[in-house]
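Quick log. Single chain, no ligands specified.
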Amino acid sequence: MSPKWRARLSLLVAAAAIAFLLAVAGARSLTLLGLGVAGLAATAAALWWALSHHGLLRVLAATLAALLPLAVLVHYAAVGLLWATLLALGLWALALLTGRAALSAAGRPGASQHHEAPPPTTPFLVMNPRSGGGKVGRFHLADRARALGAEVAVLDPAHPQDVAELARRAVADGADLLGVAGGDGTQALVAGVAAQHDVPFMVISAGTRNHFALDLGLDRNDPSTCLDALTDGVELRVDLGFLADRVFVNNASFGVYAEVVQSAEYRDDKVHTILQRLPDLLTHHTGPRLTVRAGDTIIDAPQAVLISNNPYQLGDPAGMGRRPRLDTGVLGVVGVTVDNAAQAAGLLRGRHGRGLTALAANEVLVDADAPEIAVGVDGEALLLPTPVTCRIAPGALRVRVPRHRPGVPRARPPMNWRALVRLAVAQQQEREPPGSVRMWHARGGAMGGLASIRLGHSASAGPPSALVGHLRVRRPSVRLG
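-> predicted structure:
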């Protein structure tokens, strides 16, 4: 089914959901809707109180958060409209799924461009036997790599080694490819050396989460398939993020999460440590007060900030762990500021919530009212002097990947009813040709900033990706150009 007809089907199902509820409940449907929205907002507010307080108040708030949804359902059942409400919600969910599928099919970001490159003659690989619960040993990665002609350095957990220094010595000895079988933190250290010496870098998905491998389209279930890049691979150019002088391939986090993981108790009892420290961190009773500057935008006193090497897809919870492109040439910035229960409830609006700021920038400055701040860099906990400058290095890293690989999972774009209507009524000649780029932006005033960006892509289309166009900036404006 074409995207246009999917859009029409989505609108038809959405209209059917509304018409059905009106036909069954009549004027009471508005009351039901209002009650449901109020219940969700009150539940979010109760969760905020549970996270930001200790003792009896936390217990009462958590109990209220659990009981409120049940109370709403009981009321629906009492008036005999539970079945109708659930059916209408099911139709609405179907409309959302169909609509997002239509928007996704109509605006897929182009694939990163790759090119042919000769196989390496002296590859050097670093392998961490403890990563991913022992994937290096379970998949016999060292033996397989050596059989393909690679030199392999298997790290000794009992004697920590400087993996960046290992990589630098390997390049000095003539290595024409560097690779890592390990976590994203180790990947970043060796990737920095590869970028500095302009040699290809290879990712072997032997870590626990393998976010970088996911966004490169590699197989995370069987890391041995990544070794195919040694014999039948292609080369990509991707960006690298820099936090001061340290490279990150995924993201750097500031605020609540970074502060919690710094504590000595975190590794022994993560849940208890988080629950104990969250109240003071969320209410700014402990921890530094952050200020984030990205272009003309200032995020004042956020509880959490995530700066990523290329923006994450913000359309759905699963998409928060995905980057459709790694070559857009910009950092993604997400800041969360929640000072009260009302703002916590407002986060239910997602990207439109007042407490959420999402934007893209070439450089970001994170300052604080403290001489140093905690930072989580690709899963590693650090303390860095303030202010901290984050920047992007476009196309800094050559990555060698297998020619045949699963590919990047496509995260669906956020639901946009106006865009869906335009797609449903659009004429064929109005569609953008592949690879075309059209851009509009508005300047001026506190409400200025990015108005809209519309991009079409082909396989050869370069950055920026359409993702940047989906980001809305809340708070002061960002000027482009």
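The radius of gyration is 25 Å.
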